[in-house]
Every structure is written in C-alpha cells, then in structure tokens.
Design a protein that fits this description.
Blueprint (H helix, E strand, L loop, with lengths): L1 E3 H5 L8 H10 L3 E7 L5 E13 L7 E6 L6 E5 L9 E10 L5 E2 L2 E3 L2 E3 L1 E3 L34 H4 L5 E6 L10 H12 L22 E4 L7 E8 L8 H9 L7 H13 L3 E5 L7 E6 L5 E3 L5 E3 L5 E4 L4 E4 L3 E2 L12 E7 L2 H11 L4 H8 L5 H15 L4 E2 L4 E4 L6 E6 H8 L5 H10 L3 E5 L2 E6 L9 H12 L20 H15 L3 E2 L5 E2 L19 E2 L10 E2 L4 H13 L5 E11 L10 E11 L5 H14 L4 E4 L6 E11 L2 E9 L1 H6 L6 E7 H4 L18 E10 L4 H12 L3 E10 L8 E10 L8 H17 L3 E2 L2
Parallel strand pairs: 12-15, 27-31
Antiparallel strand pairs: 1-11, 2-11, 3-4, 3-6, 4-5, 6-7, 6-10, 8-9, 13-21, 13-22, 13-23, 14-21, 15-18, 16-17, 18-19, 19-20, 24-26, 25-26, 28-30, 29-30, 31-32, 32-36, 33-34, 34-35, 35-36, 37-39, 37-40, 38-39
C-alpha cells in the first residue's frame, strides 16, 4: 500500500523523521517495502523572479537576465529562451545543481559573459502538462505561484517535497489497506491524535425513490448494497491535492467524479462504482447472479461470457457491472454525463476471487474485495464520497439513501483474563497499560477483577481470542521489552523408536541387496485403483478423497503402495534402464468409516518392485524371505488371488500364521495399462504386522559332531495342495531329527495322472547325540510318509 507522507499528515500528527517512523511501524507489525523520496534528483533548483533583461552584446538571440533567487544579490543567468518577461517567476538551476534528467549545472560563461545557472523548461525538469500546467510550453516554464517567495525550493513549489512509503499489509489486516487504516496505526504507535474526516454535505431535496429502484436477489453474495443519486454533474479535473494523492498510490487521475471514487477507495479501503444514471434501463438496479450465456463488455473494452455463479449489477435489461471487479462500458461516466448513480457495497470475497480468476481479470477494487472489507464501512465511504462531491461542486446530491442489507453484525465480545494474556507473552505489563493499548486500537476494553471485556468491531474480524489480543498488546507495548532468558531443562539423550530401528535395518538389508529406496506422494489419482482390476467390493477402493486437491492426479489418499511402485517401474523402463530393484516404506491410509468422521488408520507398509533379465518370481521371493528372516518371522506360503498379479505366479506370505504380504509377477493387462511391455515383479508387505513380531531368541549351536543322513522322497498329490502344506507334514514326521528340507523337483506331465503333480524333496536328518542308526532312520522315514499320506500325498512307486 503506497501512501504519501503528506496524505498521512492530513489524518495524524507525525512528529518523527521518516526513517524513525518506518522503524517504529516495522516493530508494530507493518513491514516497509520501500521509501521513495520525491524530487530526490532535483537539487539546488529554486523559484526565481526575473528582475531585468538585457540583450547579449555578442549574440542576436541570447538574453542576460538578472534573477532574484532570495539572496541579497541578484544572480546573472544567460538564456536563449524568448518566452520570458520581466517579473516572470521561473525555475532556476543555480551553480552546482542537479536535474531529474541527470544533468549537472555549474556556473560558466556564454560568449564571454558569466552565467551562474540555467532557467529550466518543463522537459528539463521531467514534467508533463499533467504534472504542471504550462510544463509543455516550448521554452522556459513560467510558474503560476505569484505569491511564492523567491528562493523557494522547486520541490516544494511542485509538491515534490514528499515521501512515498510502501507499507506491506498482511492478509489478516485488510482494514489497514487504506490511508485511514494506516493513519490509525501510526497514531497508536506515536501516541498522537488521529483525525478522521467527518462527512458533511448539502442535498438539493427531492427523494431518491423517485429516481431509481434497487433490489438484491442474493444476499449471501452481497450482504449490503448502498446507493445514492447525484444530478447535474459538473465534470472537470480534480484538484491538485487529490491528483497527487492518487498518483502517489499508483493510480491515474481521470476526472473529478472518477477520482473521487478512487480517492475514497484509497482513503477508506471501500471500492466504489459510479454508473451513468441516464443509461440505466428502466431506472432499476438488480444485484443478481448472471444468467447462463449472458455477456458484458467492460470498461477495458473486452467482452466476457458469464455463468450463473458470477454476481452482476444489472439494470432492467442487462448487466451493467461485474460486481466488485469492473464496470460495464455502457454505463461508463463520460465527459458529457449529467447524472449518476453511486454504489457502495460489500461482496463475498470468495465469489469475487472465483469470478476474477475465471475471467482473468484483477483490478484494484477486486483485490480489496478478495481480502475482505468491513460491512459497516460501506456507509461511511458513501458519506465521504458525497462530501467530496459537495466540496468540489461536482454535482447536486438528491435526498435519501437506499440501503439494502439482511442485517448488520454487532460487535463481538471477548472475555479474557489479564493473567492469561501476560502468561502467553511472558512479560509483565500493568493491567491499566493493557487496557489503554486495546482502547487506543479501538478495541473498547474494560477491566474488572482481572477480567478484560473487549468489544471487537466488525472491521477487526482478525481478532478472535486471547492470542490475538496478546499480539495486539505486545506489538504496541514493544517487542524490545521481551528480555532474553537462558533455556532451562534437562538434557535427554534422544533415541529412535523400536519401529524406526527395525525399519532402518530393513532399509540397510535391501540396499545391501542392490535395491534403491524411493519416495512417492501419498496422494494418487482417483482412477489409479482401476488399473489394478480390483473388485468393486475390495476394501482398498474405499479411498479417502481430498476436499481441495491439486488436481485429479493427486486427489485421493492411497490405500496401497503398488500403483506408485508400478509408476516408478514404468518410468525407469521407458527411460531404457535395463534392470533395477526398488523399495518404498511409507503408509497406507485406511478409513475407519465413510463418510470420514475421524482420523483414518495410517499403517506402515513396504512395497518392492524388480525387473530385469536376471530377475524372476523366485528372486523376489528370496528378497521377501530375507526381510521376514531379519524380523524373526516364520514364513509360510499359500495361494493368493490378487487380480493385479499373474494367476499362476503369485503367493500369499504368512508371518507366524498371520497374512503379511503378497508377491508375484504383475498381470500382463495391468502392466500394459502402465505402458510396461516386459515382466515385472512386485511385493507389498504389511509392516504393521511384521514389526509387531517379537524376534525369537537367537541361540548358537556348535558344529555337528555326527554325520547327516539324506533321504529323497517323491510324492504324488493333488495340484491344489501347496508346497507349504507338504513341508509342514515332513517337519512333523521327522521331528527333532530334521535338519533341513530341500525341494528339488515339481513335475506335471504325461506320466502323471490328470489333476496330479509329482513333488520331490531331499530331507536331511541328523542327531546331536550320536550317529543315526538304521532303525532311527527307518522310523523317521515311515513317520514322514505317514504324515504326508494324511494330507493327501502318496509315495511314488
């Protein structure tokens, strides 16, 4: 928010330097973006009066002028300009002066005679006709300030003895996005008086109801709409003081009516709009939603197609203004406009922002509506605008006001204990000082028995509770009162949680096996689960949808990690990486209920993905087994029926009889959906199950003293009997003598009955007490055969 120092001094006494003011405002929470000194490049240029003119003896066009520059002696300046006369007041650059165009003026001689400076044209001072009347004259610029004392600095004459301060207004303080708001803060910081303009004006009678009808169809998007009528406009340039204030804030003066609405917006923070009354159809204003396919041509000459979500200010036939953004060209105030309808309103900030973004429009007014304006301030802004119209004799104000609203808010009452505020600040501040600060900030406060009762006006909707009040008190009381104190407390040696330690061990194991750890987003596309061909009733389809996603690609929380792993595999394959191993340890999010009413379960999960010429199902199986062994789990395998895995190359892994993981080759249709044209293998492990296993105690055995005995068994069994079932039977049959089991053949062919398979094992038996006898071996062998027969396996003959 750029404001000139002179403009601020109209509202508040400033008794410190610019630098000190800016330092104090920064400490009060208002950062200074920049300080611009107007006329900084204009030095030693003064207003001088021509006392005498003589022709130069050695030139037919030069003139010798004796100038009164406010000193005891006249100063001689020679010029070639012909538009000057004795008595004219002109800008004179004296010896060792600087001009805005960078020129350095020093005393010298012209045709042998001394010239102690230079009279300046408007161009040499970088002025235009808009800056100063007569600046564009070909020759010396003649000043109109006849009462101006000679020797007056030209910066003062031109109004350039000012500073432009750019205040950074935070998003929670839209009330300070104006002259009055900043001036109020300055008065509190400096402890000086604040002077708010008190609108007073005269009307010419009649009644506004005889001129126009106003209706609001959507009070949710327009909580308040105020209108007034002004007749017999006298459009002309606005006064210099207003033009300078508007220009300093980065806006362009146009005429007195437009400049008044812009000035009031800068002064009060309330955007306003003026309609050409004579061009309003049926002399009616309707605040409504745009109709489908309705359009409007705005003041910038662009035509926009509207939709029903956009709010417009319409006359009896068509939209005349995009509410809170920009007026329509058909109701524009022009030089020959005679009558106007003046609007001051509050519009819902979200609607203004959505409309502006949809149409690609952003204006000074829309920016203020988006940040939020005070519904009470709309009336004050209207009164201030009418005062300026009256003071500048810009038109005749009709009696009466139209104020459409659905009820105005009352002040919010907060009750907070003084000790609670001080406890939050950690600074001892007298209670009467706390009350005084809040009252100076126009937060009317009383204290009784240590309880503060604070009345918060609607313009300060950022103040909601104890923390906000504490902040307001501290920033005015001064952060420099906070005394640094040494940190106190016991030094505790940090350590990782057991789950983290186990996870780190898994990461170390997998990295040692040549796998790379990856990290992907917990958000996935809404259609990602469809690529896995999951059943419609699969619980993994109960994904939590985000209310405000960055896009559909990141619109739901994932209930599995496989889709993210497949995306990474596809990316690497498409980049011609011949083979790779990846793993990710993250969380899957499982809702406790839908719709979501409480925090979902966040379950640790690991995903593994591999591909390459040397990789297959058994490679992945070996990796998973290593992870299981590291965690001390007893591994069992069963058939699985995951739809995204190849039906004949997948397995369910149990850890201590609890389903813990699935692994297998990705189904060709799923791989194709990801653009993968080769075999890839994935596994997903439920780490919440694995990490909960208490690792078995590790015991060490001496090297065996006695030899082992190897026996091979070949069995016929049904195809649907799993290898794990057979191994459990062998283990039970061999008992304590079993050292290890090795599967070395599975055969299905013409020599095997249909529906059967041949499975062959090597079984190693050993005793720690002595060499096994034939009798012991025979008993163990018979027990193994017996146990296998009970699960449906027969010894091949």
């Amino acid at each position: 928010m750029k404001i000139s120092l002179k403009a601020l001094k109209y509202y508040v006494d400033i008794n410190v330097s610019v630098d000190e003011l800016c330092d104090k405002m920064t400490l009060a929470g208002f950062e200074i973006e920049s300080i611009e000194q107007q006329g900084e490049n204009l030095k030693n240029v003064v207003a001088a009066r021509i006392m005498k003119i003589e022709p130069h003896p050695d030139s037919d066009h030069l003139q010798i002028c004796q100038m009164d520059v406010g000193k005891e002696e006249l100063v001689q300046i020679i010029t070639g300009a012909q538009n000057i006369s004795v008595g004219d007041l002109v800008p004179a650059a004296l010896d060792d002066s600087y001009l805005p165009n960078g020129a350095h003026i020093v005393a010298g001689k012209l045709r042998g005679l001394p010239s102690n400076g230079m009279m300046c044209s408007g161009g040499e001072l970088c002025l235009t006709e808009a800056d100063y009347e007569g600046a564009s004259v070909n020759g010396i610029m003649i000043l109109h300030e006849d009462n101006c004392p000679t020797g007056t600095d030209m910066r003062e004459v031109l109004g350039l003895d000012d500073y432009i301060i750019d205040f950074k207004i935070t998003a929670n303080r839209p009330d300070c996005n104006c002259f009055i708001g900043v001036a109020k803060e300055i008065s509190v910081v400096l402890g000086t008086e604040f002077r708010a303009p008190k609108p007073e004006y005269k009307t010419v009678g009649d009644n506004i109801s005889n001129y126009i009808k106003v209706s609001v169809e959507n009070y949710e998007l327009c909580p308040r709409y105020i209108g007034r009528v002004v007749r017999n406009l006298r459009i002309k340039p606005s006064p210099a003081w207003m033009q300078k204030a508007i220009t300093a804030s980065g806006m362009r003066p146009i005429n007195n009516i437009v400049d008044i609405t812009n000035f009031v917006m800068l002064e009060t923070g309330q955007p306003m709009h003026a309609f050409n009354y004579d061009k309003l159809s049926n002399k009616e204003i309707i605040v409504r939603n745009a109709k489908p396919e309705e359009s409007i041509t705005t003041l910038d000459g662009n035509e926009y197609k509207l939709n029903s979500d956009m709010l417009v200010i319409a006359d009896g036939e068509k939209p005349s203004c995009l509410a809170g953004i920009m007026g329509g060209i058909e109701s524009e105030i022009e030089d020959d406009t005679k009558n106007l309808f003046l609007e001051s309103a509050k519009f819902k900030r979200d609607n203004i922002r959505h409309t502006g973004r949809a149409l690609g429009i952003r204006t000074e007014a829309s920016g203020r509506f988006e940040k939020g304006i005070d519904i009470i301030n709309t009336a004050y802004a209207m009164e201030r605008a009418l005062q300026l119209i009256s003071d500048l004799d810009a038109g005749d104000i009709i009696e009466g006001v139209i104020d459409c609203n659905n009820g105005l808010p009352e002040n919010k009452i907060l009750k907070v204990k003084t000790k609670d505020i001080l406890a939050l600040l950690g600074v001892e501040i007298p209670e009467n000082e706390v009350v005084a600060i809040l009252n100076r900030l126009e937060l009317k406060t009383t204290a009784e028995n240590g309880l503060l009762t604070v009345s918060v006006p609607s313009i300060r909707d950022d103040v909601e509770g104890r923390a906000d009040l504490a902040e307001e008190v501290m920033r005015i009381y001064g952060y420099d009162h906070i005394v640094g104190t040494p940190m106190r407390g016991n030094v505790v040696r940090g350590q990782k949680l057991p789950e983290r330690i186990k996870t780190d061990k898994i990461k170390s194991l997998l990295c040692g096996m040549g796998a790379y750890e990856i990290a992907t987003y917990s958000f996935i596309a809404s259609g990602a689960l469809d690529t896995l061909n999951l059943d419609q009733n699969d619980e993994r389809r109960n994904a939590i949808k985000l209310l405000n996603p960055l896009g559909d690609e990141y619109s739901v929380l994932r209930t599995q990690l496989t889709t993210s792993m497949l995306s990474v595999l596809a990316t690497n394959i498409n980049r011609k990486i011949e083979g790779a191993r990846f793993f990710e340890i993250s969380k899957r999010f499982i809702p406790k209920s839908l719709p979501l009413t409480q925090q979902p379960l966040e379950l640790p999960t690991m995903s593994i993905g591999i591909y390459g010429d040397d990789e297959d199902f058994f490679t992945l199986k070996g990796i998973v087994e290593e992870v299981m062994a590291l965690m001390g789990a007893h591994t069992q395998y069963e058939r699985s029926n995951e739809t995204y895995l190849h039906p004949g190359r997948q397995a369910l892994v149990k850890a201590n009889n609890t389903p813990c993981a699935v692994l297998g080759e990705v189904h060709p249709r799923v791989a194709t959906a990801y653009g993968i044209e080769r075999r890839v293998y994935v596994a997903e492990i439920k780490l919440d199950v694995l990490l909960a296993i208490n690792k078995r105690k590790v015991t060490f055995k001496p090297l065996p003293k006695f030899p082992a005995v190897e026996r091979d068994f070949a069995f016929l069994c049904d195809k649907d009997i799993s290898v794990g079932t057979l191994e459990q039977a062998i283990s039970k049959g061999a008992g304590r003598l079993l050292e290890r089991i090795k599967l070395f053949d599975i055969y299905e062919g013409s020599q095997i009955p249909e529906g059967k398979k041949s499975v062959a094992y090597s079984v190693f038996l050993r005793s720690s007490e002595g060499t096994l006898s034939d009798e012991q071996i025979e008993i163990a062998t018979n027990n193994i055969i017996d146990k296998l027969q009970k699960v449906g396996a027969e010894l091949r003959k």
